[in-house]
Design brief:
9 helices, about 20% strand, 2 domains, six-stranded antiparallel β-sheet, alpha+beta
């Protein structure tokens, strides 16, 4: 610690003391801020944003360089402080644009890789209306290609979408559904005659996870366990939400959906 003593020992020159404090406080705050956004940009997002994260460290490195140069009297104290203030402003500008860039990038992205399901489950919102989803997917289902997954975050007018399709034995499907029977608001028996009415009555549309024919095949003769659905205006599903579990015994498939649009 001896080599850092000059930062803390009593200095008769009040200006030098204030100067040291200015840099210590400034660098500490900027570093905490950069570490926070590094974590947010890389561990709380669909994609990693390494470049956007490290850009935020450039002004900090330059401010530290200014401090060392003025300490060695290579640059005048006043000049070094002015340059440092300019760099702080640059940091704030970069922070703002990096945040906007990441928000737009994330808001227009989606994830459909089952191997990333656990990560997405942990970072996505609307926990209260996606309780029906498992915290992780059994590896044997992933390895045997018996899983389809789709996630899209909510951004501006774009809706939130969390969907999971599992192919399992009917006994396993029934056991899974049994855990959530108490939260079910309505059980809908779907057949060819009423499958087209699902959207008008419940706001249930063909999930993104399906191709059109796949969705039609699944919902025909399926059983939907509806937790809740609601339009923003009566009989107007331009905006709304729906979350449910559905099964098709013939296909031996379980569908879990939470959508907010």
């Amino acid at each position: 610690m001896e080599k850092y003593d000059y930062l803390f020992r009593n200095n008769n020159n009040n200006k030098a003391v204030k100067y040291n404090k200015f840099y210590i406080i400034t660098l500490t705050l900027l570093l905490i801020n950069s570490i926070f956004w590094f974590w947010q940009f890389n561990f709380c997002t669909i994609n990693t944003h390494i470049i956007s994260s490290f850009v935020l460290f450039i002004p900090i490195i330059l401010i530290l360089l200014m401090y060392l140069l003025t300490k060695k009297e290579k640059i005048r104290v006043k000049k070094g402080k002015i340059i440092s203030i300019i760099l702080i402003i640059l940091f704030l500008v970069l922070n703002f644009y990096a945040l906007i860039f990441v928000m737009v990038k994330e808001g227009t992205s989606h994830e459909d890789n089952p191997l990333r399901y656990k990560h997405i489950y942990n970072i996505s919102g609307y926990e209260k209306i996606r309780f029906q989803f498992p915290k992780e997917i059994p590896q044997d289902l992933i390895q045997n290609n018996k899983v389809k997954f789709y996630y899209r975050p909510q951004f501006l007018q774009g809706g939130f979408c969390f969907e999971l399709l599992l192919e399992m034995k009917n006994k396993e499907i029934d056991d899974y559904i049994e855990k959530y029977k108490e939260q079910v608001k309505e059980i809908i028996e779907v057949n060819e005659t009423n499958s087209n009415d699902l959207y008008d009555k419940y706001g249930i549309d063909t999930p993104v996870i399906f191709e059109y024919k796949e969705g039609k095949e699944f919902f025909t003769n399926s059983e939907i366990y509806l937790f809740d659905s609601k339009p923003y205006k009566p009989n107007n599903w331009n905006h709304g939400y729906a979350y449910y579990i559905a099964k098709n015994e013939k296909l031996k498939k379980l569908l879990l959906v939470t959508e907010v649009w």
